[in-house]
């Protein structure tokens, strides 16, 4: 019979898998959309002398969204670039101390990013900020970035506390 801690971990694992699937699917969809916008713009520009209107804005929004959607995935998998200069010089004992500390520091920085991005997105929403050509509202991108940073902060904290 599974222990209570194993039973408690199952819903977290299921929620984690669902979140990972949603983020991966959204990032993949944005990558395909970004590729299509770029291809259509290049073909229309050079063959028909009629560039895709708003392609630059779409590229900016898609790319920013793609980066922030991938951030929690990268953080949860601990796939960020790490410089381990101290590991070799200090030894395993110090590394066991430094890794959780730097992980919690990263979580704190990501939490501050989430908070500041949320505040910025709120101001964008209040001001009704939109892009110049296509009038796409900018606030949703800010809220997406804030949410992604918050999820990344939680993932970094969990990774730091994991043995």
Plain-language structure description:
With 163 residues, this protein is mainly α. It has one domain (4-161). It contains five helices and no strands. Helix 1 (4-47) packs antiparallel against helix 2 (55-76) and helix 2 packs parallel to helix 5. It is elongated, with a radius of gyration of 20 Å.
Lay out the secondary structure.
Elements (H helix, E strand, L loop, with lengths): L3 H44 L7 H22 L8 H6 L1 H36 L11 H23 L2
Number of distinct beta strands: 0
Taken together, the total number of domains comes to 1
Shape: elongated
Question: What is the CA-atom radius of gyration, in angstroms?
Answer: 20 Å
Query: What is the first-to-last residue Cα distance?
Result: 24 Å
Question: Helicity, in percent?
Answer: over 70%
The chain-level structural class is mainly alpha
**Low-pLDDT stretches:** none
Strand content: under 5%
